[in-house]
Amino acid sequence: MARVIKIAISALKKTEMFNFTLEHKDGLARAGCINTPHGEILTPVFMPVATQGSVKALDRVDLECLGTQIILGNAYHLYLRPGTKVIKEAGGLHSFMNWARPILTDSGGFQGFSLQHLRKITNDGITFKSHIDGSTHELTPESVVEIQTDIGSDVIMPLDVCLPTEASKTDLSEAMNLTSNWLGRSLRSLERKSEQPLFGIVQGGLHVDLRQKSAEFLSSLDLPGYAIGGLSVGETKEKMYPTVEITSKLLPENKPRYLMGVGSPEDLVECVVRGIDMFDCVLPTRVARKGAMYTKFGRRNVTRSEYKKSDSSFDKDCDCYACTNFSAGYIHHLFKAKEYLAYRLASIHNLRFLMRTMGDLRKAIQRGLVKEYREQFWENYQPADQSARTNQALRHINRFE
Ligand SMILES: [Zn+2]
């Protein structure tokens, strides 16, 4: 029987510290380096989402080739399927998926938002009805930490309460207080088990006073990193960006800042200039599977008839596997024929586009040219999302300049 050849994966050692070095600043934008037991991560960084232990349609080699430094898994999904025990017995998530680089896992707090019809929040935790078989499961701050220590995440996220943007201030305040309370329980639970880093999550919707209270409390705990949650949950970008800026300014400068669930090209540019270091989002791979591929001018749909006879690469500026090996006409054909390869090639391209954007932003920060980079980006780019409005409107709402 053939043997699965596993790549060398360094074991998590308690003595190996997670740390962040802030290397350069340009305005609020930052370039830095995060050290983890599974390697270093140069920031700003975009983390492709591997909810169920797989970035949809891609494998490890694809991810490595396009320059992926860290991926994001989801504790809630992996706990339901294949189950924590299966992953633990396989030697952890790195070994199970044969991925040697860092992994951050989200807690399931966001599924408390996205699967609202399947959940109930109490002071103890979140009770979910499984979207797979309808069975009932209770996630508590403690159980969520245990899942993530068992699967060997490089960064653990605590259970939090994420509400939609239209929630009342009273509800948002309660959600924030419960998130803070659960963080305390998560930290106490983690202390007994492991030294894996656990980030705090700032909540508070679009209310400055709530964000301030949440950020001050979390900052006082001197955590290894800080996430901003509860954004990209239905609000417009003109409301989201100032909230990102206000919140990031409230967080300690010497720790990484992670904006959860945000990741269109324009969001990356606009939020890096507001002080964010880490991002994740399902958008680039989700739209890729519909044929929407990024270019410096905005999203273009390769299924449109104008690409049918094209024998050039989809994006002449792109160095990805799809653009350097196949014509736009061929990718167009794959989508029309519903061939699986279409989803893989378009996903590779979109993720590579974001990796190059982050790499270019990092260089611009190092050279003190982030303002010029941003101007140039907006000279070309037309966002697909109408709530992003025009590039001129975006410039007006930015108080960074
Ligand atoms: Zn490409």
Structure description:
This protein has helices at 60-65, 75-80, 84-89, 93-97, 111-114, 141-151, 169-191, 208-220, 237-250, 265-272, 283-288, 321-325, 328-336, 340-367, 370-380, 391-397, and strands at residues 19-26, 29-36, 39-43, 45-47, 71-74, 103-106, 119-121, 126-129, 136-139, 155-156, 200-202, 226-228, 257-259, 278-280, 292-295, 298-301. By secondary structure, it is of the alpha/beta class. It has two domains: 19-281, Queuine tRNA-ribosyltransferase-like (TIM Barrel); 288-397, no CATH class. It has a five-stranded parallel beta sheet. Helix 6 packs across helix 7, helix 8 (208-220) runs parallel beside helix 9 and helix 14 (340-367) runs antiparallel to helix 15. The protein starts with 18 loop residues before the first strand and ends with a helix.
